[in-house]
Fold these 2 entries.
Entry 1:
Amino acid sequence: MARRVLVTGGAGYIGSHTVLQLLLEGFSVVVVDNLDNSSVVAVQRVAQLAGEFGKNLAFHRVIVVSCFVTRGAETGFWFDIRDKEALEKVFATSKFDAVIHFAGLKAVGESVQKPLIYYKNNIIGTITLLEVMAAHGCKKLVFSSSATVYGWPKDLPCTEESPLCAMNPYGRTKLMIEEICRDIHHADGDWKIMLLRYFNPVGAHPSGQIGEDPCGIPNNLMPLVQQVAVGRRPTLAVFGNDYSTKDGTGVRDYIHVVDLADGHIAALQKFFEDPNIGCEVYNLGTGKGTSVLEMMAAFEKASGKKIPLVMAGRRPGDAEILYACTVKAEKELSWKAKYGIEEMCRDQWNWAAKNPWGYRSPDPPN
Ligand code: NAD
Ligand code: UDP
């Protein structure tokens, strides 16, 4: 029988790509999402892209009356992982072999302005999920951590043993959740946990049917770039050109979102194949550093669009250079990123060109 996985935040950017890969690998998937930063259209398109495997996907958005909210013009029932009663109902109806936990808020700047919202959503949400998992005997968790836990690293590349230092409330939620996971595994060895530290996910599924479509003003580089490319914004602000890097702009380890999604499949397989798994941490990156200007050049080449740049000051809290050591994931998960920045920019543009207004655009051609 197909293994069943609960995916929190499965309507979101990384979640939707991972759900598709899970379905294609033969998993049965239940998604829970409050659609705070995503669209139900993403889930529908994932089901279509999965073809015959689409029947193995269920989506819970509407669960309990206590989630009743009014959000802009929309009024409805929303599934929220902080709602224990709602989660209990999901676990009561299905037995899960594992949970992949993406649900959370991720905007660094907003987390500085509204820390309590971040602590409540990310930390209370995770604790609630862990409690319900434990109560139902499901103790295998894959958690979305982030390279942000390395802060401004002194030594590069970042290995899983590099010192940890969060520089903002968002980063602190990731660090605290990692610590919570280590503690629950320490207290109860039945817990098997994968803490996956993502570097910079970009790109989109090559079909151009799913991609990143943040609500409101994007925070990350590539969603902003794609909005410039389709004419939704006039320019891109480059945050700092006086760093000690090859061209003065910040350097990051960009990873194609499909490679990242495959990293989750590799982590799940490890649960089922290796009885010695405890609470493990893995970097998911490519190991290569790319500057903002290099990324802009690659995107302009892939899209044929000029991205007008405005040099701006450094963004507070930004690290200068961040890239991963990928040896551990390669060795222990038998996983390695396949795509380079050319494919990342090609697929980012394919998604943007077909969906200039994200999931609110008219349906793209297949
Ligand atoms: P996303 O915002 O596209 O996806 C997160 C999803 O979680 C959204 O669909 C949102 O509606 C949902 N959600 C948020 N709070 C919820 C709640 N309380 N209950 C139910 N659903 C909720 O973000 P993403 O880029 O796909 O990121 C997924 C995870 O990976 C996040 O935890 C994020 O912090 C982490 N991460 C992302 C990046 C990145 O650059 N995208 C890097 C490192 C780590
Ligand atoms: N960046 C930029 N302009 C923007 C957004 C980001 O120059 O509008 C830079 C940022 O300073 C960093 C890189 O792009 O060097 C990646 O930023 P992002 O926010 O995507 O990821 P993070 O900084 O969280 O790794």
Entry 2:
Amino acid sequence: MKRGFRSSLLALALVAPCLAQAQTAAPAPEAPTGRIAKHSTTANQDMVAAANPLAAEAGRQILAAGGSAVDAAVAVQLVLNLVEPQSSGIGGGAFLLYWDGTKLTSLDGRETAPAAATPDRFMGPDGKPMAFYDAVVGGRSVGVPGTPRLLETARKRWGKLPWADVIAPALKLAEDGFTISPRLNGLLGQEKFLQSDALARAYFYQEDGTPKPVGTVLKNPAFAKTLREIADKGADAFYSGSIAADIVATVGRHPTNPGDMTLDDLKRYKVEEREPVCGMYRVYRVCGMAPPSSGGIAILQMLGIVEGQDLGAMKPGPEAVHWLAEAGRLAFADRALFLGDPAFVDVPVRGLTDPGYLKSRAALLGAGRSIGKAKAGEPPFQKTEFFFAPSEGIEFGTSHISIVDREGHAVSMTTTIEDGFGARLMTRSGFLLNNELTDFSFAPTEEGRPVANRVEGGKRPRSSMAPTIVFDAAGKLYAVVGSPGGSQIIPYVAKTLVALLDWKLDPQVAVDLPNFGSRNGPTELEAGTEAEGWKLEIEAKGHEVKLIDMNSGIQAVVVGADGLTGGADSRREGVAIGN
Ligand code: GLU
């Protein structure tokens, strides 16, 4: 991602009219990065933080009209489908955590492999795993989308406004058009595969093959028609009938890499309610998404492992990076071995998050020296033994939405089409399809043993998405956090939680802190930030350090005694706004 996209001033200019509704707080405390691109936003009643100003504004309007956090989430998601199409939409999947004031519920709208999928799906004719983009581009990587059914399920349970009302903001933008943002334009410029799809080319690019410029008013009548049908008939309009037929045809007609999704696969799609994974971190209760995401467990593990250290006294810097990176190594070693779809794999959730187990893992670490490559542990209460799993890279195809409504109910939702622009397939119905199936391990076995996250028909690929909700010592809602970033989501969210809970940083400063961590490889520091200056000290503890781009998109809303404070990652175009 190019630094230029971090132009949050532009993002703020786009949203200036709606910021009138919320107050911008006094200048945020000096960020340790020295990069104060945005200020925290405060609001008395409610707040939405999302990756695009138009999407956040749609959510704010729904909240102002008396909608619930879930109503606002539906509106934000559908607008994101238009204005941030590279990241999420109805052709993808999502995880949603909902706090209703007394109970936390999580819904799994993860994409699912077609029934016909087999473990060798991403193996080439040479018996080796396919190159990543050979697998991604085309129908082979497309999972049955979960987002439409997820939105409908959540709204039926927790919505207050009519279904058509929460769809209306996106419908209006699809019909009247919206302006192409600098980030979308920039990503279209870098994109190598999208133009091979004729519908996507016509929608996003000019005749000469350059992306439609920033500020172009883009209309999407096909998506408007789709939204109308969904408004009339509910998500059934997506999972059967002409939209479903269009998805199946789009997946199946790719000339070199067709998929095998059927109408039956779509008809059978189900949202799963899961028990959220929760654990204590100091006085706070931190809750996240259960498998098939690895995000919730890995973050609880990291926090549990560093809990014995006085991170509050350390402040952001080499020492804190050492401990969090070491905790990341241990968490990612377990993640690789144990995590997969719980319908197919016995994930020892209780053992992996058991405080005694985490203490025993923490005991492996020392202040002076990195442990290097960590091995998976032996969590208690474990029924089955596994496995292996390769790691993934950094993607752009995800977005996070944090919302708190006037009743103090909250949504933390991370939503994805996996890679930037997904499978690079645009349906005639006006939306892009995901490539989520490449979140499965390509190799079905390693050293003769099956891989937990191998492809299987009807299975959900392992995720790293980590929508998170934090409660304070009194059990009251305290923070709503999450981020895109592929497997980097785990260190991004862990960093933000430590910044909020240990360093007591303002949410905007917390999200903008340099990113860092380890996924059980090198210790990674965010290039172009003050973290570069920490490198030598961290290397002195035996870490192999890599400076890399760490393009998070963290959205954080914190509930305080005097109202809400929100921060949206300065690395992207998002804003936090409220009433
Ligand atoms: N597909 C990834 C996952 O579910 C997220 C990709 C991203 O964050 O860009 O973990």
